[in-house]
Amino acid sequence: LGGASELAFIKEPSDVIAVRDRPLMLDCQVEGEGPITITWRRNGVPVPLGARAAVLDNGTLLIRNLQKRRDGDESDAGEYDCAAQNRYGLLISRKAHVQLA
What we know:
The chain is mainly β. The chain has no helices and eleven strands. The strands form three sheets. Strands 2, 5, 6, 9, 10 and 11 form a six-stranded mixed β-sheet that branches. Strands 3-8-7 form a three-stranded antiparallel β-sheet, with no helix packed on it. β5 and β6 form a beta hairpin. The protein is elongated and about 45 Å long. The relative contact order is 0.34.
């Protein structure tokens, strides 16, 4: 019936040049039959949520203050994608490249 239960992206994350120590928001808005679970990955690894990062109610990823440490490659730069899942399936967004200015 009309495919209303199918997941579809309304907004996908886009490439961005971010500023260190500033917040970054990446869009991921989905329509489809709920409940819908949104998860985010950076370079294929789930983004740890907590004090520094959160997924807002609309699916947007908020990183409160971007980090780039000189030791090693501990940085928030990379390729981000979001995955939306409901009981009908899983949809993965395009990859957004986040670079630090």
